[in-house]
Amino acid sequence: MFPKGSQLHLLPLSTKHEFSQLRRSAFTLADGAQTEDAAAIAKLVLESDPRTLPEALYRPTIKWTPELVDKVLKRLWNHGPKALQFFKHLGRHPAYTHSPSAFDHAIDIAARMRDYNSAWALLARMRSLRRGPIPRTFAILAERYVSAGKPHRAVNLFLSMHNYGCRQDLHSFNTILDILCKSKRVEMAHDLFKTLRNKFNADSVSYNIIANGYCIVKRTPMALQVLKEMVERGISPTMVTYNTMLKGYFRNKQLKEAWEFYLEMRKRKCEIDVVTYTTVIHGFGVAGEVKKSRRVFDEMVKEGVAPSVATYNALIQVLCKKESVESAVVVFEEMVREGLCVPNVTTYNVVIRGFCHVGDMERALGFMGRMEEHGLRASVQTYNVLLRYFCDAGEIEKGLEVFGKMGGGECLPNLDTYNVLICAMFVRKKSEDLVVAGKLLMEMIDRGFLPRKFTFNRVLNGLVLTGNQEFAKEILRKQSKCGRVVRRLKL
Fold this sequence. Notes:
Blueprint: H1 36-47, H2 53-57, H3 66-75, H4 80-90, H5 100-112, H6 116-128, H7 135-147, H8 151-159, H9 170-182, H10 186-200, H11 204-216, H12 220-232, H13 239-251, H14 255-267, H15 274-286, H16 290-302, H17 309-322, H18 325-338, H19 345-357, H20 361-373, H21 380-392, H22 396-404, H23 415-424, H24 431-446, H25 453-465, H26 469-482
PPR repeats: 169-199, 203-237, 238-272, 273-307, 308-342, 344-378, 379-413
Family: Belongs to the PPR family. P subfamily.
InterPro entries: PPR_rpt, TPR-like_helical_dom_sf
């Protein structure tokens, strides 16, 4: 319910625009189809000898634009060394200068590989060329520091932005709060918020971020306390405020409180939007109350609120998990037939996962083909779902076949891909499978991924136990490149 005595429910919704996505998330493969030029260039970079790559990139037939470079970098995202190699060589092109966006991509890739020296060198180069840095650049670095377990470095980075010619403002303040909260460091974010809220004139976005942070760690009473303080300071709640709290109740499995909160929103004549309905549909569905989810969906349509693709995705996911994949397919086909929403990659991935879960891999592969027929490029998540289920079913060769399709630059494997495959190589306890695990470990290091110590130790010990000591020694020499200390190993 709304907090008693806070007057939160009596205030009108703010008409102020609110950013739904504050932070610049770590770059991932872009949605939608990429140009053939970007695909061809990515393939060229992956297959070229580093010594001859500059000559290939300087061909007069290639018309370099910031948009094309961004697309190539996105395609090379899961091969960090090759992406940075491409960026470095193209940076010397006589007729092209990297855009701020390209620098941000490169900095993000370097920081993801925890090569902070290269990331800072790129930032310095960016500044010398007067291409930045811009607030998004610092958001990228801050997010990478936090994901690497260095939140204090992220905060210090925010506090020192002005030293690099980029002044802090309310938006950058909200961004660092958002990064901390979404990494479950809400108390650190709240302390920073209380220290600097007057300096930056904290707004509804700031309070919503902190409230959401407490909801993420399932501390809804604290979230309500934050919103109560927001109202007491004369800041009007927005629909994001209410939706944040509603989602928090569902996340904390407080279904009764969530439903009462939703009814109170209707009673107070809040303009229930598509996000509210989607939150309720998903919240009840994952709790197993599928009939209630369907009723809310029908009520939404009746009220004249058009379901978004996110709404359909939520309902389809719920049906796959709690009812049946056949019910989900009925909704999917209805979505396509009605034409109100066009299925996106996530929609297809949810259905594909549903088929995989019931062991119908043939129909899962069929839906993947259907996705590509409709102009959508399978994402790394699509491949990972298929690969995981093939491996779980003991069909290792089919899993490796799926993996083989990922290497040509169309959709490069990510860290999860390698972890799933390496784990699968231990199931049959065959010497040749462990050699494959070792090769995968070598490949992932070459591509800029950092294996966990557990993964390193497991592969090395497995190779030693199956008589592959020489290969184990070769991998051991690799470990210095990624800073993983191998323990309890006798060669």
